[in-house]
Every structure is written in C-alpha cells, then in structure tokens.
Protein 1
Amino acid sequence: MTLSGEFLAFMSLALVAVIGGVLLLNLTKVVHMVVALVFTFVSIAGIYVLLSAEFLAAVQILIYSGAITIIMLFGIMLTRHNDTSEPKTGRWRKLLLFLGVLGFAFAVYIGIYNLDLPAAPNDLHVNNTEQIGIELYSKFIIPFEVTSVLLLVALIGSIVLAKKDDEKEAEKE
Amino acid sequence: MELWNLYQNNYLIVFVFLCLGVILPVVALFLGKLLRPYKPYDTKYTTYESGIEPFHDSRVQFNVRYYIFALMFVIFDVETVFLYPWAVAYEKLGIFALIEMLIFVFMLVIGLVYAWKKKVLKWI
C-alpha cells in the first residue's frame, strides 16, 4: 500500500471515528459523549466521500449528526441524570474482556488479511444522486414502499407509547 | 479519472472549513478564559430567583411530549432524504415514479394525521 493522500485521509478519518467512539464510552458527562458521537458520525461521512458515495455522506451528516443526535439529546433530557457512574469492575473481568477483544481482532485480521475483492469498475462519482434515484425507483420499489410502512409504524408506535404515559399523568393530576 | 481527482481535491476546502468550525469555538473559549478575571465565591454562582433562595436542581426532567417532536422530526427528515434522489432522477423515471412517491408520502401523511388526531402536535 502506497502512502497516497487518500490513504492518509482514510487513516485520519478512521482514527477520529475510533477515538470518538472510545471517548463516547469513557467520558462522564452525557453532553460531552454526544459531541464525541458527532465527531464519529462526521468522520464516517468523510469515509463515504472517500468511497465516492457523496449522497450517502450528505445523508449521514443530515440524519445522523443532525437528527439522531437531537433525538439522543432529548433522550438524555428525559432521563434523570445525576452523573453517578457505575463502580469500576474487577481485574479479572477486565482481563477476560481484553482477551476477548484480542481474539476478535485476531479473527478479523485472519479474515481480511488475504481477502481479495476485485475492484469492480464503477462510475459512482458521476451524478451520484441521480444514479441512486434511478436504481431506487425502478429496481427497488417494494423495499422503498416497505420503508414507508416502517416509518409509519415507528411514528405510530412512538405516539402510542408516549401518549399512554401522558394519560396516566393526567389521571394523577 | 484526472478530473475526478481534481474534483475530490476540492474536499480539502471542506476539510479546512470543518477544522475552522471546530477550532473557532475552542480558541474563543480558551482566550476568554485567559482574559476574564476569575474570582469565584458561592453567592456568585447561585441562580438568580428574584431574591428568593434557590432550591432543587435547576435541571428538570423533560416531558415525554418533547421526545415525540424530536422523533417526528427524524421521521420526516428521512422522508425528505428519500425525496432528494427522486427529484434529481425524476426526468428519467417518468410518471410511475410519481405514483410511487405519492404512495410513500401518503403513508407518512397517515402518520401525521394520526398524530394530529391524537393531539400530539399541540404545544402546551
């Protein structure tokens, strides 16, 4: 692998993504965690750009670092946050976890080391959004319509769940 | 391919702007910390409540109602994302795509009407 600009960009983006994930787990204040998560999302969008999936990158920024983050912030505000962290776990558990992580890393390494994916010639970078549109609305109509049903179910389900609490509160008052 | 590389190099400018956006608040807050005087005492840090002694935590638990607003925002955001490629490729897709999209939007309108009827949209 040569040290090209693309490689450098990928490495730094991947590094930011991983560091964001680790910080998300290790920071104590919830809002800081959300900021770390935003860094992860944005760097993943950068990786999409490197893969010349520009529409996907825009969607990643729009949906994940915009909407999902907002929903997480709301989730945080809904819960009681007294900033009490769990007591640290024992040494044995840490060791076992470390071994597990090592084993997983080893398995993945063996899996991908000699993996040869021939680069299929594509022209993704030409009119990316239009290509997605043509594929989506001529070949994948049924999944697309099922997506709308899924969104509908999510909307109605959330309303049913949240409204129930509301009525109980009204009864209390 | 040459042109493509040239095009992708333009993302350097995006990167520069991203860095500026991250660095600017950090530098501003850091400079503010350097410049401002720091003389803390307890009464300075209490919340001002018309002269009444403040009690409890200032952060309260929010109502579930606001969460539905956030969730509906996400759902309609996803809908918008599906609209973009449809609008771009509309010229090449023809009338059938219009019908597809109408079904899609209709599904979500059902959800919106349901939310409306359940009085979720009311801001109290």
Protein 2
Amino acid sequence: MKISRHHTQGLAKGVIWVAAFSTLAVMFWILYQVLREGLPLLNLGFFLQAPRQMGRAGGIFSTIIGTLALTVVAIIIATPLGVGTAIFLREYTRESRVSRIIRFGTDCLAGVPSIIFGLFGFVFFVIFLRMGWSILSGGLTLASMILPTIISTAEEAIKSVPYTYREVSFALGGTRWQTIRKVVLPNAIPGILTGVLLGVGRSVGETAAVILTAGSSFITPDSLFSPIRTMAVHFYILAREGISMEMAYATGAALILLILAINTVANWMMYRYVHKA
Amino acid sequence: MSIRLEGSSLMEKQTKIAIQNFHFYYGTFMALKDLNLSIQSNQIFALLGPARSGKTTLLKSMNRLTDLIFGTSHTGQIFIDSQEIYGPGVSLPELRRRAGMVFDLPTALPLSIFENVAYGPRFKGLREKSRLEEIVEKSLQAAVLWDEVKDRLQNSALRLSGGQQQRLCIARVLALEPEVILLDEPCSGLDPISTASIEESLTRLKEIYTIVLVPHNIQQASRVADRVGFLLEGKMVEEGPAFEIFTRPKNKKTEDYISGKFG
Amino acid sequence: MSKEKILEKSFLLIALSSISILALIAFFIFQQGIPLMWKVGLNSFLLGDRWFPSKESFGIFPMIVGSFWVTLGSLIVGVPLGMACAVFLSELTHPTIAMILRPMIQLLAAIPSVIYGFWGLIVLVPLIRDSLGGPGLSILAGSLVLGIMILPTIISISEDSLRALPRTYKEGAFSLGATHWQTIWRVLLPAARSGIVASIILGMGRAIGETMAMIMILGNATQLPNSILSSARTLTTNIGIEMGYASGDHRQALFATGVVLFFIIMGLNSLALILSRKGRA
C-alpha cells in the first residue's frame, strides 16, 4: 500500500504536535503542581519567621537570609572577575594562544557538574583555607560556578558595542582604558547585568555544592563565617527527610516564584537591551 | 599663493605634513605604494580617486588610526611639522589630538551633546567645568551648530539630524584644538543645505587649521580644495593646485577620472 | 611601566582566573582521590561491584552502570521529545506563539533540579510503584525526570540551529516540489545536524552531572541494578548521599568517584567542543 507524501506529512505533523504539546504540558504541569499546593501556604509570616521544630513549623526567614548572603558574595566576586576576563578577551587581545587557553578553561569550567564544585569547595575552602562551612565558602564556590556564565554574557555585551564608538574614541585621543571605561562598558552594562541576573538565578537554585560548603544550619547567621541553609537546601531536606510535605510545598513555591521573578527581569532586560541595539 | 620651489627653506616652514616613500600593507596586500606628498599649512588638500584606491587608508595613516587594525605594517615616513609620527616615543593619544578626524557616517556617541564635544578635552585631563563649557561653546560656534543647540546641550546627541550630527563631529574635533583636521567624506548622506554649510565652515577653518579632505565627489573638491591629489590603486598619480588638476591635468588617467570616464 | 601597560597586565591576570580555578579543581580532586584509587587498585575500584565503605570495599561499578542507564534513559526520553518540540517551535507554529513559548522554556531550564526531583518523588515514584511494581524509586523514574530536565537544553539549542539555517534551504526545497514535512525531514534537520548533536551532548553532560534530583528518586541501592525498576546509585548520587558523614578512606573514595566523573565530563566536553568547531567551519 503506497502512502502518499501528504499522508506521511499529515501523520508526521500530527505526531509532532501531540509530542510537543504533551511535553510542554508536562513541563508546565510540574510547576503548576508545586505552586498549587504551595502558594496558599505562603504568607508574610512564612517569610519572616525562622524555621521551628526542624522545619516542621514556622517559616523560612533564615533560609532567605542565607540565600541572599550566598548570592551576594558570589556576585561580588564573580562579576569583576567575569567582566575583567571579557574585557581582556575583547579589548586587549586577538585570537591567540592565550585567548584560546582562556576560552578553553572557561568552557570546561561551565561543564563541571555541581557536585564536583561541592567537593572542590569542601576540600579547598572549607578545609584547606580553613573557612569552615560558611557563607564565605559557599559564596566563593558559587562564584566559581557562575563565572563562565558571566564571562560569556559580558563578552557578548561588549562585542555588541559598535566598533565605530571605539574608533571615534581613539580618534579623539583616548587611550585604550579610557575608551573601555567611557564608551565600551557603559554601553555593555545592560547585557552584563543580564548575565549577572542569570548568575543570581543559578546561585538561588544550586543545592549540591551549597550543602557541601555552606552547611545546613537553619540558625540565622551572624557573620560571613556562619554556616547557613539556603531555600533550595531547606526544600531538599524537608522533602527527602519527609519532615513536612506542607512546608516543602510552601518552600518550593517560594523558590519557584523567586526564580520566576529573576528570570522575568532578565528576559525583560534582554528584550529591552536587544531592542535598543 | 606662493610659487613652489624645490628645496626652498621658505617652503619647508609652510609644509605641515610630509609623506616620504610611504608604503602601507594590510597583511601582504600593499594598499599604498611609494607615496611622496607635501601638504602645506592652512590649506585644504583634497584626495580624489575611485573607491578602494586607498584614500581612507592614507587619511587614517596620518593619525595612526590604522594601528587599531591588526596585521598592518608600513615602510617610509610621515612627518607632521618635521616630527616623524611613526617614530619612537610618539604618544598616540597626543597625535590624534594634533590630527583630529571626522568620519564619513555621523558618529555621535550615545551621550549628551555637551558630553560629545567635551569628550576629547576630558581625555586631556581637563576637569574644570567653566573651561569645558568655554571650549564646548567655542567649538560649536566654529562648527556653526551653537545657535541650534545652545538650549539643549544636555539632550542626547543621537536625536540630532544627520547634518547636525556631522557638524557635532566637527565641533568634537575642534574641541581638541588640533593642528590638522582629517575629514573622510564628511558630507555623505547629507542634504545639500547641510553640505553647503559644512563646506563653508571648512573654507573658514582652513585659516586656522590644515585640512585634508576626502571629498564626496569631484564637484565638492572643485568647490573647496586648494590642492588636489589623485590616488589610483594606492599610487599618487598626480598632485597639484586644484585649478590645474581640474583644467589641465598632466596625466591621462587623471583626466579620465575627472571627466567621469570611470570611478 | 606606563599606566596602560599595568592595566593590560592586570586584565590578563584576571582573565586567567577561570583556567586557574579549573586547575585548582582538578588538582584538589585528584589529590584526594587518586591515592585511594591507587591503594584499592584501579581495576577493583572501577570494576568491583561491592560498595561497603565500612568494610573498606570500594567498587563503583554499580554506580557506573547506574549512571549509564539513567543517562541513556534520559536521552531516549529527551531527544525525540526535544526534537519534536524544536521542530514544532521553529516550523509548525505561528511565530508569535513561538516567541511566547521560548522564554517560558528558558524559565523551565532555570528551575532548580530539586523541584523536579520533588515532583518525581511525589508523583512519578508512587505511580511506577503502583502500576509496575518494585520500590518505585527506580532507574525508570530517574530516566523520566532526567529526560524532562534536559528537554529545555535540547529544545532551545536545536531550535536555534534550525532557525539559523538560511531561508534559501527551505525555499529551494519547496521550489523543487517538496512538502513541508519532507523539507523538514530531509533538508532542514540534516542541515542543522551539528547544532542538534551539540545540544544532545550538552544535555548528556547535564544528565550525567545531575545529583539532587537523582538522590531523591533513584533510591539508595548500592547493588548492581538489574532492571529499570531497580533502585540504583549514580556516580553523582554516590558522592552526594555519603559525603555528609564520610571520613578517612571512605571520604577519599568519594573523591575518587569524583575523579572518574571529572574524566567522563571532560571527555564529553572536549567531544562537544571539537564537534561544534567542526560544524562551524
């Protein structure tokens, strides 16, 4: 029986439609499930109270502080390093041995799994540098993880600054650094910020590396050397130890909302920035 | 107009730019071949030639903007006021302030009008607000733009029309207080009125500065130039007073180009 | 040295940070793990199937097998569905709908793995247990969830590759009388092959490196898995589960597991880079 090409096409397209539709549906359903159970449980008290009874009651205040602290440390360290690397690759050098090595290192770093970062952070920051399980150890580890992201987005942003701006700046007597500072960087800031936001999103959701380097104490921290628990870690512990499904849903919902907010801002920035250019 | 005598010391004092045995390469491609040229002070020197003949390259060699492109090299020398610009110890930012350049597309920086003009002076280290304001006003006036923008100096320069932006670029270069002004097709894409006002400014500016111009077309050169050089495939075929080149060119190729047979 | 030169050197130093970190990671992981691999013997470490830390028995073969099956399963789930979505987005829907869906898919990529693991635990595991038997915490559950997790990666990169193809490919095929589907199947997909392969390798890398979700739904079994309904461990979960309380040789054995993982990932990454450069050239 010979099937006409049009029948084949109809069949193929039909299969694809079903596959695509169901795939996307499942993916969104996953989010929906957590949000449906968890959203009703979210209230101001939840966010402002500390966890009690190992997390069975109370709120997630200390974990919010922990998440915030870790993210801030990671961003403060990774952004200058990442932007500096991008500036070097784009403004101070051409494709050469050095730049190839740097790119190779960055690409490889991007592929390292988070558990390996956790092992590294543990043996290097926690033990070797004697920082212990702390915000500092966790933040530095996270900084290493988000560095490749910031480097590549910063590079893209710097690359998209029109060449004529630089040429004009040089023609007016600017040095390379003056040109970077007054023309390139200011125009690349939106793109760089997008990369930073992506890094923030990654830090918020990271669990494996954080547990191994920042510990899991849910006491509100009082210094950079205190151990802390992030929202993601809290969620994981609640779920895995079966402590409280309710609290787990609530924490999960909060986590999803946070990621949603960060991503939306990042997308909006990318949209506005891309349109501006 | 003085008579040109070879080797006259009187002449040397008036030579602003001297190019000797200059070859320029993009990688292995020779873009400029054995150029020998003297450009005198307070004159408008126009570079004519078909596309891709090396005019922009020559212009950008004079302030070493070609250094920005990787893989370029040269032999020979270029002197500005008997200082070899490719010599050791030459400060590039300094050189580019001495020989300021206006590009062919209006290249206003995404800053306010004031900041665009103040850009160069700030690089020199000038910080005092009153001095900067003085220079900005002076430059904008010399570029015949002051009256149109004096009430909106803080507005973004990108909102100016093409002609206004180009005059802004001229003001920007004037703010550097240069000695030489290099212009690469400064009126391309501009309407006839803007073009006329820029050409008028150039004619006045030459009394203070030395001007090297790549004109948009032959007519523009005939309107403003004092001397003309015809560049063909990287070689300077002929060079002399504008009137002579346009009416009695010595070289056949020059004549063909001027009369529009090619280009 | 002039100010400019100092700045240039400083930026060079900063730019070397990423490769320095990579070197540090490799150094410390190897420093902790290799001695133990040596002590136990490479063969018995990689091929031994008994993992009893308390009895000083460190064989990670079951974990290697676990990683293999879970990753393979995730590719079986993720690649066809991902390709279908990519084709759907780039060819079969209205551009506006695609424009709305694309950031939503990127959002899904940003969702932490623990959320996916949680869903797997709550929904998928009981489902498998009730309908197919076994503990539910299984390779099947892991493959399904992991497949879903790598979908956004495969979708967005494959779709980008398809969209980047010159219009002339499609127009040329149509003008030769091909149907839309024939064009997609015989012209566009093969042309986007290098990007698609890159996306698969990237997805594979993400799958092999996934830890938290797998801890939550694969179970804790250290024996060699014998069916897709068995519980199992992967190289990553091995580390993640026991690192909290391991010490001495046990801890070093976990680092050794990390060494193996490191090599696998580096191998995959290099493969991806080589292929993507070939594709670009």
